[in-house]
Amino acid sequence: MERRGIRTEKGDYNRTIMEERSMMRQVRARVSNLHGWSKNNAKGRTERIDKDVLRYLLQNNPRHTVAQKDRCLKAVSYIEINRIQTPADIHNKVEGLNTRYYRLNKAQQGAETEIRTMTEHLRMYEIWKYSWRYQRKLERLSRKRRRRFEQRHASKLHAYHTAIDYFAAHELSMEDWNPPRWKSRLEKACKERYDCEFVQTDVKKELECLETIRQAMNEMHRMQRQRQPEYDRGER
Predict the structure, then answer these.
(1) How far apart are CA 183 and CA 123, in angstroms?
(2) What is the DSSP letter of 114?
(3) Is the Cβ–Cβ distance between 196 and 111 less than 8 Å?
(4) Quick one: which of 7, 45, 77, 99 is 20 to 30 A from 18 by CA?
(5) Contact 167, 177 (CB under 8 A)
């Protein structure tokens, strides 16, 4: 149906999954970049972060737009709530964010796989439930009447065998078919995926705060180097 230009529910779901995976790849790249910076920044450094300087850089920069000022205010609040005092504190937060990202990614992929599997199980069961009566009628007919019946109901019989082959490929005998249980597992997986979306939003917010802090610290270090005398920097 999608090839004919007709949108389907399955196609919409696949597009949503592709968009989410693309966004998660971007988040992974941002987290990796931030992790490398925080690791290098915390290495061999124990000095305390001057919160007044950070607050000045985050709040009173005239070049910031309204959206940037809003991000800066959130970053200052993040520093105060999490009691960030040293570069090592920032690195610990990035480490925690990195761990949360990988747990989220694993949980999200597991939920997507479960949703896809249970949805296909239920779809094939509905196909079987609709078409099995035609197969039963075919088996009761004499050999002379079978050919004509097969021609008239070829699509239903093909659907029946498709469903049977699907369950055989997944090693599910008819005794193992349990649509109520599949629906329960589908609902549980949908709930897990919905919860992952909330965690994903929290991860993105925390990532944005840490990136803003990184920008401010880089600017702070640049200003400190500019104020430092040349002979202290080893320049003659």
Answers:
(1) 11
(2) H
(3) yes
(4) 99
(5) yes
